[in-house]
Every structure is written in structure tokens, then in C-alpha cells.
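Please, structure for the following, as C-alpha cells.
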Amino acid sequence: MLSQGDALEIAVQESGHLIGDSHVQEMRADLVSYRDAVSRLAKRGLTGSDDAVSGDSLVWLVTLKGVFREPTPGQLEGEATTPTPRCSEIIVLIDDAAGQAFRLMLLPAESCS
């Protein structure tokens, strides 16, 4: 079983390419059932995916908030573009038993300090 600190560290490592040299303003990690995590994400308009985790499995739902440089479509295709910094949330789901991230999402956030 991972500690909250372990989950935060894994989330930061997994999303390092999005964080870059930006400052993470807020971090939160909640240990919940996968079913609860999917329910929380659905309330934000995010649909489920074909994750290889069962409904009762424990997962860490980690949210990192800050002004991050979101990748542009050109950047995703390997073009040299400069992404625009935006107030965003990075959400990472981590399988508690395996200690591995299995889903990463980048969403616009309402406000950053």
C-alpha cells in the first residue's frame, strides 16, 4: 500500500513532461475505490476508459494544480511549437496495489493563485 506522499511523488514523476519547470500550486491525493474515482471524474464530465482495474480496487486520485504549459497539437505531433501556459489541473490515477499510474488527464482549472 502506498502512502499519500508516495502517490504524490508518482503523480509528479508521471506528469513531469506537462509540469516542466512550472510551480505546482496545489496537490491533493485521495485513496478511493476505482468506482468512486470514476464517479468523481464523471461529475467533471470525464468518461471512463478501459482501465484494467476493477470497481472495488483502491486507487489514488491525485490532482496537481498550477499554471502548466499545455501541449499544443503540433507539439504532440513532434513539431517545434511553444505551448501556452494556462491554469490547469493534472489528474493522475494510480493503482494502489501495483504502485503504478494508469491514467493521466490535463484539464482547464477555474483559477490559479
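The chain has a mean pLDDT of 86. Strands lie at 24-33, 58-69, 85-95, 100-108.
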